[in-house]
């Protein structure tokens, strides 16, 4: 088998991430030893199920595993409370027992939703992630954060609940729309910016090839990303120190942009993170923490692959709404705001990110005003 395996070390909850081409067709054999009983329910969305559902089910069948499938609409609305209730009833219609395993086949939406469903179905059943977007392969399927959305915001109801296995089939990315691929790529570059300057330099050279479909480079990018995330999660599973918070580089700005523009797909999460990372480096340079040349490199690379870098260019008709004060208000509403203090991930340079709650608000205001000018 032409797959790489990365171990997420979490004592009794450790698991493997397998990365490689064609893994969907080997899922039955790879999952079988981990199942409490040979029965699974696949949860997928209406876009992914027709593309890969039958192949995954056939692979389970071949391994003697009984598989049923439940499908949810594609998109963030499937993480709403009401949709979650509907899914739970549809899962119970399949007459699961405590030995049933749920299998999430899809992007981050399906992964977050299925993971949370597994955490609470019959007080907890096992689950396996088969991520099909780049974002899910490098970020959301690893680390055990699961959850759904409420009218108070995204991911405010959920659980830390680790999968038993992650199967990242690199070939499924061939059907992913370019814009979704690019959004996932922002999270790939993020790992370099956090603490791996060599990987960021590799991204500068190879990012274009990763995006245009070079299989070996794609696999390498996913592998490096999962290694980085696995290492951070192993050291800080529940974000109790500032270590796991480093994964939120670009997210304080990004979430503010997403909250302002709405979660309707006009600005994808990864796009917002890409813009947010450029802003975090700009703010770091403005505060004298980071060389301006490093901030320029971040903006140049992310912009060159096609991520939106200029606030004014984002959001079409919505752009008249961009206002520094409103963006700062959204940052305060972010669940990562700690006792009213804004939390930022800033950097002393590429690969030198750190967490701070001491950002001078005038500097932040100045940055946003300039970005919106
Ligand atoms: P998504 O799951 O909505 O997928 C994006 C779109 O691509 C969907 O329309 C989907 O149907 C389609 N798609 C998926 N795979 C495809 C394929 N192989 N070919 C063609 N189309 C395909 O979005 P996403 O970006 O994967 O995930 C976003 C979600 O992830 C958000 O809800 C976010 O909160 C969550 N997230 C969670 C974590 C975590 O740690 N749990 C981390 C980051 C993001
Ligand atoms: Mg993210």
What does this structure look like?
- This protein is an alpha/beta fold and 373 residues long.
- The protein is built from 13 helices and eleven strands.
- The chain has helices at residues 27-31, 48-62, 81-93, 108-120, 134-140, 178-195, 197-212, 215-235, 251-261, 269-286, 292-305, 324-333, 361-372; strands at 4-8, 15-20, 39-45, 66-72, 101-106, 126-131, 145-150, 153-160, 165-169, 344-347, 353-356.
- The chain has a seven-stranded mixed beta sheet with strand order 1-2-9-6-5-3-4, sandwiched between helices.
- It is globular and about 60 Å long.
- The model has no long low-confidence stretch (mean pLDDT 94).
- Magnesium ion (MG) is lined by residues 139, 187, 251, 269, 273.
- Its EC number is 4.2.3.4.
- Its main location: cytoplasm.
- Count of alpha and pi helical runs: 13
How would you characterize the largest beta sheet? 7 strands, mixed
How do the SSEs run, as a string of H and E? EEHEHEHEHEHEEEHHHHHHHEEH
Derived structural class: alpha/beta
Low-confidence stretches: none
Ligands, deduplicated:
nicotinamide-adenine-dinucleotide, magnesium ion
Task: Report the span from N to C terminus.
Answer: 54 Å
In order across it, which strands form the biggest sheet? 1-2-9-6-5-3-4
- DSSP, total strands: 11
Pfam family, one: DHQ_synthase
Binding site for NAD(+): 108-112, 132-133, 145, 154
Domain 3-dehydroquinate synthase C-terminal: 184-337
Protein name: 3-dehydroquinate synthase
